[in-house]
Amino acid sequence: MIRIPALRFGKPYTSLDKATLVHHVTGEPVAEVSQVTGSQIARDIGTCERAHKELAAIPIRDILAMYKKAADYFLNATLPCGDAELSFADYVRNLSATTGSPMVFCDRNARKVHYVLNNIEEVVGGLTRGLDVEALDKGYSTKAGRMQAFYPTTDVFGAVLPSNSPGVHSLWVPTLAFKIPLLLKPGREEPWTPYRVLQAFIKAGIPAHFMAFLPADHAGAGDILRLCGRSMAFGDDRTMAPYKNDHRVEIHGTGYSKLIFGEDEADNYEKYTDLFVEAVAANGGRACVNASAIWTPKNGDKIAEALAKKLAGMKPRAWDDPACEISAFAKPEVAEAINNMIDEALKTPGAVDVTEKLRGSPRLVKDGRIAYLLPTVIRCETPEHPLANKEFLFPYASVIECPQADVLKRIGYTLAATVISNDASFIGAALACPTIERLNIGPLPTNRLTWDQPHEGNLFTHLYKQRALQIADGHTPRV
């Protein structure tokens, strides 16, 4: 069993209170993770002003060079993990063991983190919308005679992280490139990725006292969000509700992402069935950018059946099978609760589970300590049905018919939307739609992202604010 300490801005800390992580299939202990208290979190955050000043003094080009080294170490080096050392393959295996996400998913999503590390200048350029990176040294930039100046909003950035996919870690990875110290509270079952990224940074030369890895309970997570000047958090609508109006917290919650057909393309739905499958089921359907609904002005029954036929063949496989297509629930009670919620909602007239009819078997599959939810397509007669606008932690999609003239008024909040249409008027309306965060036009799955454009919030504008700045002629500020 691996013993993983907390990292308190450069100081490893082993606590009496530890969380034991077990293999989702066998129940055997895999790791023991030290926990920190709220008072320790508060003390550590109090040291960040000095660390911030030290980090700000390092030239940005030096930091970017260290990121490139860290990318190589993350993917190719054997790195410390508590009292063990792990290769990338070891890391992926442990990650899969404790989260229930298949190894093939873990490997694929961990490589997204490597991509951001390795292409950090491109990512920073996208987040700053082309600002010269040297502006992060000076605090301002003059481009085409126009002054742009910024100042930091915090001495430390806190991230309260989930356990569902390593791909989400790419969102906080640029923090040190923006010269802000970093505090991470890992998801209970997923300490592996944040710990490995920090170890790659340290090996690349970034001082350890700019970074913290602080496993904690729910109260500790609340302390981080309360005490950090800026933070991000992941969770469902209920968990994130207390922070909805807190500008300091960037919320990554339920996505309600959608595929939306225009009137001109709805008859051509058969061309897009592979796109449906990727949007709904990629990464086990657990990402906020996975589509959870298809809206169409016509052919709803046919679209639901076409997607269901594609998804109905997906079945549970061993966690280390490279052909795995769906994730296990390490806590079977979660799968049972979701299954019961769907079955209860199906008692409301106006919806049918198309996949279950085709498959001829139940949605919930139990296997020893674990459970699976098989992909599910629900055909809803109206947008008002309780299952029309739901999102779950498995491949799930509702199919709803709605006139093109009404659809953008009815869809509600949508993290990622793909509009399949060549109608310039409809595309223009989608571009102006205030409830869509990220918009794909044409046959692009909702989960197909570009790293130079954030799909939910912008880390740079979260960590910095723009200010007006004038410099007298002949005066050059020292930086």
UniProtKB/TrEMBL annotation:
Residues 19-425 form the Aldehyde dehydrogenase domain. One of its GO terms (molecular function) is oxidoreductase activity, acting on the aldehyde or oxo group of donors, NAD or NADP as acceptor. It comes from the Bacteria. Pfam families: Aldedh (PF00171). The keyword Chloroplast does not apply. Belongs to the aldehyde dehydrogenase family. This is Aldehyde dehydrogenase.
